[in-house]
From TrEMBL:
Residues 1-323 form the Acetyl xylan esterase domain. It comes from Streptomyces rameus. It comes from the Bacteria. This is Acetylxylan esterase. It holds the Pfam family AXE1.
């Protein structure tokens, strides 16, 4: 796929036309207050998986609505003192997989917490990991297959309200372990995971760094009309059937647009974008990056890549960059 979006010079100054709801902060304050009415109840069960350099814990904590959410905590073997913490969120359709997967961050000497995404975990074709272990027990109105339109009739019912809340609680759960240093917490993720990380970057205080790669869930008004690839296409196909509901859908999505969370970003950030990315078009990524509020920010651009972005090359970039953070 050749370049299809704005030229790089225009991307660097592009601003989203997404309109922020007046009660955006109140909506999220109330949502998190309701979630914290439930005990976090974070439980860490050791897992024997044959690894000699990494210790793995099967984690369960209370997310949105007090619902049980799963994750993995990985630590370098023999850890006795609290370590810097990386909390990671998964791409669309992916699950936490098996305990011996995703060993990069623990191999750098950090604690690594990987959150399972409720209702997902059957997306091997997307390359975002293995099976999931977390149900989404909340029902919804009619929706297009996938997750993008579940509960989209109102922000209170929308699927990503539950996911973003789970993500905030995941950071709280990870920080509660005695071998993690809560004061040195970074968050990261690719695609959907990057969009979730941006939301967490606004909703969780005291983070030292955030690294969203080719993030999804950014600049909904442009994304839905610019690309015909899923998952954004799910929204267009829903509206193709549910004619006349565009305004209410746009209103719901505005509460979950990473652009508005980015305007509240409170930590140094390293973004990535790929100029041939038709899944998360580069202008939508730059919309979030350009809105990121913290002055210490950078973006790595991969000129000839699609949604794979920088792949392992960018993983190495993140490792180097995170070492430079306090």
């Amino acid at each position: 796929m050749a370049l299809f979006d704005l030229p790089l010079g225009e991307l660097r100054t592009y601003r989203s036309e997404s309109r922020e709801p007046e009660d955006f902060d109140a909506f999220w304050d109330k949502t998190l207050q309701q979630a914290r009415a439930h005990e976090l109840d974070a439980r860490f069960e050791p897992v024997e998986c044959g690894l000699s350099t990494i210790e793995v814990y099967d984690v369960t904590f209370a997310g949105f609505g007090g619902h049980p959410v799963k994750g993995w905590l990985r630590l370098p073997a023999g850890t006795t003192q609290p370590l810097p913490l990386v909390v990671e969120f998964l791409g669309y359709g992916g699950g936490r997989g098996l305990p011996h997967e995703s060993l990069l961050w623990a191999s750098t000497g950090r604690a690594h917490f990987l959150m399972d995404t409720r209702g997902q975990g059957s997306g091997w074709d997307r390359g975002w990991g293995g099976a999931g272990a977390t149900a989404d027990p909340v029902g919804a109105a009619p929706a297009y297959p996938g997750f993008m339109t579940r509960g989209v009739e109102a922000p209170e019912n929308y699927y990503y309200r539950r996911v973003f809340t789970d993500a905030v609680r995941a950071v709280e759960a990870a920080r509660s372990h005695p071998l993690t240093d809560a004061s040195r917490t970074a968050v990261t993720g690719v695609s959907q995971g990057g969009g979730i990380a941006i939301a967490v970057g606004a909703l969780v205080p005291g983070l030292v760094a955030i690294a969203p790669d080719v993030p999804f869930l950014c600049d909904f008004p442009r994304a839905v009309t610019l690309t015909d690839r899923p998952p954004y296409r799910e929204i267009a196909l829903f509206l193709k059937t549910h004619r006349g509901r565009s305004q209410e859908v746009r209103r719901t999505l505005s509460y979950f647009d990473a652009v508005h969370f980015a305007a509240r970003g409170r930590a140094p950030a390293l973004f990535s974008a790929a100029l041939e990315d038709r899944t998360c078009p580069p202008s939508t990524v730059f919309a979030a990056f350009n809105a990121w509020a913290h002055e210490d920010k950078a973006i790595r651009v991969y000129d000839f890549n699609d949604h794979e972005g920088g792949g392992p090359f960018h993983e190495a970039e993140k490792v180097r960059w995170l070492r430079s953070q306090p």
